Structure formats: C-alpha cells, structure tokens
Recover the amino acids of this structure.
C-alpha cells in the first residue's frame, strides 16, 4: 500500500511538473494569428505621434470586439492618416484588431 501511494504521488508530481511545459505549447499554438477583425468606434484624441504613426484615443465601447471604453494607442496603417488630426478632436475611426494590437485603417474628425 505504501508503495502504491508513493507511485501515485510520483505520478501526480510528474503530471504537475509537465503542466507548465504543456501550457507553453498551448501558448505557442495560439500565436498562429487569428484573422484580423474589423471594428468601428468613436473617440477623442489624447496624443499623436506623427513620426511613429500612432494615435492615442479615449474610445467608447467597441461592440464588434466586446471592448469596454478605454484609452489606448493605435497604429495608423498610413502615416498620412495623421493629417487633420489634433489632440482634443473627436473622431470616428475604423480599425483592425489582432488581440489587443489595433491598426487604424480610416479615421475622420467629427468634432
Ligand atoms: Cu481600446
């Protein structure tokens, strides 16, 4: 009985030790990129970086992605999209997201 218990214990320890490696495998598998998803939102420009081609927006909820309202930085697909944008302007924009990485494909000032 004691021997059986120690075998069970060793097996349990072995399985536990294997879990992190398994989890890493799962992580690797999920880096196979999911298809980019299009979404639309409105927001207020909080920061602009024309050189980096990024815009930080305090955006409202994004229904397509079930995102809550938040402030985050988006990359612009084309640097020229930055034209006409300024801090404090209200904008309507279209973007693609892969996880939390979002790229704006179209943006226009609405207020
Ligand atoms: Cu966001």
């Amino acid at each position: 009985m004691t021997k059986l218990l120690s075998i069970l214990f060793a097996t349990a320890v072995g399985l536990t030790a294997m879990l992190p490696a398994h989890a890493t495998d799962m992580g690797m598998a999920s880096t196979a990129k999911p298809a980019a998803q299009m979404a639309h939102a409105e927001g207020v420009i909080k920061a602009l970086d024309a050189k980096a081609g990024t815009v930080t927006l305090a955006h409202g909820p994004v229904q397509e992605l079930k995102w809550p309202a938040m402030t985050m930085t988006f990359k612009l697909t084309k640097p020229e999209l930055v034209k006409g944008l300024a801090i404090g302007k209200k904008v309507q924009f279209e973007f693609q997201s892969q996880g939390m990485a979002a790229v704006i494909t179209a943006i226009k000032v609405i207020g």
User: Anything to note?
Assistant: The longest strand covers residues 37-49. The pocket of copper (II) ion is lined by residues 59, 67, 70, 72 (CB under 6 Å).
